[in-house]
Amino acid sequence: MHAETDIHFRDAAAKALLDPQLRANFRRAMDGLIAKRRAQFPDPGDLQDLRHLSTAIRSRSLLNLPDLLEQFETNCTKNGIQVHWAETCEQANELILAILRSKGAKTLVKGKSMVSEEMHLNAFLESKGIEALESDLGEYIIQLDGETPSHIIMPAIHKNKDQIARQFSQKIKDAKYTEDVDELTAMARRVLRQKFLDADAGLSGVNFAVAETGTLCLVENEGNGRMSTHVPPLHIAVMGLEKVVATLEDVAPLYAILTRSATGQAVSTYFNLITGPRGEGEMDGPQEVHLVILDNGRSRMYADPQLRATLRCIRCGACMNHCPVYTRVGGHAYEAIYPGPIGKILTPQMEGVGARHDLIHGSSLCGACAEVCPVEIPIPEILVRLRREATHEDAGSNVVGRGTGRTATEDWAWRIWAGVLKRPIVYRLASWFATRFGRALPAGAPLIKNWTQTRSKPVPARRSLAERVRAEGVPHV
Amino acid sequence: MNAQFEAFKTRAEAVSAEVHRFATQAEALAFILGFLREVGVSEAPQCGAVWAAGSFLEKAGKGGLGVQLPGLRFDITQEAAAASKVGISQLDWAISATGTLVQDATAVEKRLVSTLPPIHIALLGTERILEDMGSVLQHLRPEQINYISFITGPSRTADIERVLTIGVHGPERLIIVVVDAFERVMA
């Protein structure tokens, strides 16, 4: 049975709503991202064509996922990329630790990787005495304060420049206080440049993995992805197992829709296709390239024909930018690595639908997310499905924590409802009471209060429809 | 070729790259040497320039260039690139639809000179500008190339309040030198 105390999102969201600075930071950023995305798609027909194409590519890739992964591994191995498989985050962390230790590596610089956030890799490595430093500017900012990303594309968007200025002046050695964004960026660059040159290993994520060629595709703007993958002598890449596509031809449309949906750019500054370690006779570049492929619940999602759509996601963040809930409460209220609409379907499938009952219900099902999603993930439909999974143990379901979201209150409510509807006498009696005394019921009454706190109380008619039909008859039309 | 170049230039300049076009390789070389002098390339610390191998450089002749310009190096290590103000490399293709440069960067030195110094000069033959990513991918097969770089403008971020900032980890200036008679001079 799921305990009421597990519900975080409602309280965290309520708290976030009271923080005017946080709300202003998000409102400004999200409005900007929405406008920039819209400008990239001047023709609605073209946008729909590109969405349908991208959806088809991702769906086809997932349909052939086991074969593509096998082909991808074979080709990576041929190219000199060493492939490792991890079923859980713990296994993935241990694998990375073992690779680092085998090379005697003590410091790791990281390009942006949401999968490594999912694994809580930084904390794990720190506990084993290895320094893991984020090099993406946004990730660096939140790492200084020990925070998690509040947005998957713009991890530090919950902070404004004054907050970052204070943080830098306190936490970076010899830093002076400045609110100039260029100077703040230069400060981070200076610290990180030295770290890059000294690092024993670099880590990156993977945006697309090409099965036919064994290629890792990396999308970025800052140049830290490039540096993480070729400045240190060891490169470790991590990816979720859903990232694979069949051919390089599949990548071009996905890349085009990813950057446009994410930051409203036609292309990112850098797009790197990595197909192996340094060649023979080279003095620099990674001697070894390792790839850790993480499952963490993904093969379960793959096995369910409806939930599989979750894996189409290319992590652009457009669903967050357009979500009326996310844009008001920000990413941290979700208490999850993946916030916003995609997080609401992804996190409960990874952590359990009972444990994250709060997220599944923290949605008005308005459908804005599904409307902007570049790969047409039916997020509201999946939310409704997960709501059922949370309270039922349906045959054939493999959802984690299915049935554990039931509460005694809800069970009794349904039992009473069924009891009333199944007995005409009781039903008549109940509607007689509701029409006569419903108006007198105070809005603050228990149970009703949860509804009326933020909405007006429903007012019943003075006579029920059945009563009126009996008294007045049905007028002939 | 002209329309392709103009489209490329417009898109590249829109993302803060600087684009220059020359008829011959000799003119381009004169521009580059002038530019290097102008930004103060010398043997002083953090003032060097690194030039990665390529057909343009072969033609120009390393020996003579090194003598003409102290501080210009051709033997590229990570340390040398990190200590330089300017990195020069030859690009293989460009995409007019997005103002993107494409490089077979299997040679690590090409990645180092285009990432570590604050200024990157990119050399390109005019006829190497193609229309879109698909056309370029037909020429570059990753099976044979360890590292392909697509570069569009200088390094940028908008991680603080979505304010655009140029020059984060990579170069803050990208100078694209397009040469019409690139291949002819080479042959």
Care to describe what's here?
The complex is a heterodimer of chains A (477) and B (187). In chain A, helix 3 (44-63) packs across helix 12 (248-262) and helix 16 packs parallel to helix 19 (379-391). Chain A has a six-stranded parallel beta sheet with strand order 1-10-7-4-2-3, sandwiched between helices. Helix content of chain A is 51%, strand content 10%. Chain A is elongated. In chain A, strand 5 and strand 6 (215-220) form a beta hairpin. The longest helix of chain A is centred in the N-terminal third of the chain and has 21 residues, at 20-40. Chain A contains 23 helices and ten strands. By secondary structure, chain A is α/β, with parallel strands linked by helices. With 187 residues, chain B is an alpha/beta fold. Chain B has a single domain, classed as NagB/RpiA/CoA transferase-like (Rossmann fold), CATH 3.40.50. Chain B contains eight helices and twelve strands. Chain B has helices at residues 2-14, 25-38, 55-60, 62-68, 78-82, 108-115, 133-137, 182-186, and strands spanning 18-22, 48-51, 72-73, 84-90, 93-95, 100-104, 119-125, 129-130, 147-151, 156-157, 165-166, 173-179. In chain B, a hairpin with a 7-residue loop joins strand 10 and strand 11 (165-166). At the A-B interface, helix 2, helix 8, helix 10, helix 11 and helix 12 of A face helix 6, helix 7, strand 9 and strand 10 of B.
The description of the largest β-sheet of chain A is: 6 strands, parallel
Please provide the ordered H/E string of secondary-structure elements of chain B: HEHEHHEHEEEHEEHEEEEH
Structural class of the secondary structure composition of chain A? Answer: alpha/beta
For the record, what is the CATH homologous superfamily label of chain B?
NagB/RpiA/CoA transferase-like
Q: How would you describe the oligomerization state of the chains in this entry?
A: heterodimer
Mean model confidence by pLDDT of chain A: 94
Proportion of residues in helical segments of chain B = 25-40%
Strand percentage of chain B lies at 25-35%
Report strand % of chain A: 5-15%
Main-sheet strand order of chain B equals 1-12-7-4-2-3
Gyration radius of chain B, in Å: 16 Å
